[in-house]
Amino acid sequence: MSAVKLEKKVAALERRLQNEMRFMVQPLAQKIDHIEEKLRRLDDILPGKLALAEQPEPMERAEAEPAEKPGGYLVPGTVPVVPTVVHPEGVGFAKWKEEVNDLEGEGAIDEEPIPFAETVWNLSLVLGHSRAGWLDLTIACLLTVLGTLMQVFFIAVITTESFLGESMEEQVEAARHWRAGSAHDVKYMDLALTSLVSRVCNADGALILSTGQAELIEEINQFLGIDAGDFQLAMVPPGIVLCTLCIMLWCVVLSGELRAIGISIVAAAQIPRSGTTVVRNGSFLSISYLRFSVYLLFRLARTAVAISLMYAGTQWLARTTNITDLILNAVALEAILQIDEMIFTMLFPKRVQAAIYELEPVKVRFTRRWGQLESCLVGCLFVVVVLAPFISWVLPLADSMLAVKSEYCDGNRDFVVSLNQDMQMYMGFRSVPLESDNVSDSTLGQVAVAEHSKGSLSNGSARYISFSLDLDSFELSRVRSMKEAAEQFAFCLDYDQWAVKGPTLLENYGSYFRSAAFHLGRSEATSCSELSQWCNVLDARLLRLVCPRTCGCADPRALPWYKVPSQGCPQACRDEANAIAGNLECKDANTTENWHDFWDLYPTVMSSLVGVDMLSTPSGQKILALIHMMKSIGCLGIFILGSRDPISQADWCEGSERYFAPLALVCPDTCGCLSESRPAYCPASCRGCGDAPNFPPSSAATNCEEAKLLGICSIPTEAEQLCAETCGLCNGTNSSNMSNTSAAPCFDGDVPGAFGFNCSTLQVNGWCPMLIAFNSPASKVCSKTCGLCT
């Protein structure tokens, strides 16, 4: 505060104190004059006694004097007593005191000096009655208009939707679109296999996407005082409480402003009005009607601004969702309210300021009833302006916040989807939940990046990352399928044997083995034998690629499941298995453990194929019957069931490119490999079944013995066609193609005795319903027994 302003304030305070002292002393003087008047009248009635009573006596003499006697005399040894004064009309001091007390009762009138505020709104009171020049007055008028316009513009901006932002009701629809759109997209799943929505709703600090949604949910949790997994209001929501308090504080400030405006209007109304304004030493002796009207208009304008600020500020506070911004917004509103006073203090011309400083307070008379009425009005106004926003805005805001959070985070968050454009279907995957105590390095991706980010990025140095030499190779590696990788694997060796081939192989593909071991939860493994128990797991494709021999990829009679390139078995191993099968006898193998394991895994593999637990479907019992039959009768079940798998429609003998190797390597006889029309998937040992009876006339030999001497056995095609038996290409006996068996629809056909079963066997074991459901040819051979005759 400047020295000049301080001096003005001190002078104004001194004048105010003088006026207040004069105001307080004046009633006392009137009472004293009234008492003196009564005493004079009493002296006229009782001459001499009053003068005697009024003479001061020393304390010693007062003690020696006798006590007061009737008639006004003093009794020795007593203190002088003021005589009872009797009013000429018979009214004493007691009655007079009662009259005075009546003036201080319900109808008592108090006069309080009301000063004029130091603000631009009082400019109309000093125009023409200050020592300021016309330029100062012009600037003062322009500043008054400027201050008003600034407050109006602030109000206009605060009430716009662009400033207040999107309401919580509108956020509900936005949350619904986000949840149904990108929240569960597999593209936004992180290396920990956690969905985007799970990370957003659990306040993952590592987010680089949807940070706006995460901040909004965090604001809602803080505002409502709830945890990430809660969807109910807390007992004492801190945001609602603080918002209500800020609104209450703002309403208190505006109520005080409105009260000051009302009192100033009452004070101005106390000034006598006339045709001209008369001001003497800062006091209004009279005020003109025009000036009073302008002053009243200014007061009404100030009232409109205050009410507008109350509405705009309350709405702004009620729409503030960030709990830390509530108090800052309340302070900002206070600054907007004080714009006129700041302009007056900092920019107003000094002459005009001095004239407003010098305005003397106006005495306003207040009765006790008026004070109580004012208190009731102010209290009711305060309750209304606080309760109305609380009911209309604050409580609905809390409900909208809960609705927004429910749309963002309620329900199942732990899954992702991806569009299969070719099938025009969305495929889903159950993602990993994001828990508060989740370990940061829990997946292969996280471990690989965390481990390598601390070391060198040179090619081949990473434990779990396979680096490419150039960008093209990197792009190809990103889209390469397991089948392509297995077909390009040019060797059939376990990881344990890679070191024999040189350090290059181990350096380039060592990350494959370590990644496979990590996937299986055995990151400390150093050899294929430690991981052999997982070879027949569907998700162990990478293990079969790096440990093909341990997993049986080169064994033609091994468990057929997953012994295909698309499941990790290298093509080099499959070629080796076919070569070994060519040296085995061309007949069905015995029902071994691998055969039983094959059918035990059948429902698991088929469930992964169709995406549904097959045993829980209505066909579950039929599938169990199929497994029982195939384990009971071995390779013969392929003939009974039919050439194709009823679920995947893959040919049993040819195998499935996706799931299992050809069963013709295990059951060549049943698969018709000994017939004249041998399929290409049959083992090499089933190529021929005897020598040709006649040789071509142009041939140099007339029989196989002569042809063998001429080297026909070294020509595979001619040896198979002409001299298969002589060249040792026959390892079995001729057999008719059992798949060609047919029967009439209304009686049982003839079942060859070599099969080891008859139609009654199918009926006794309860296999007929299963064979009929899977459209087996055996059900047609045994049409009558299986109940197919009509």
TrEMBL record:
Keywords, alphabetical: Membrane, Transmembrane, Transmembrane helix
Residue stretches spanning the membrane: 134-158, 231-254, 375-395
Protein name: ShKT domain-containing protein
Keyword Cell cycle: no
Organism domain of life: Eukaryota
ShKT domain sequence ranges: 688-731, 745-790
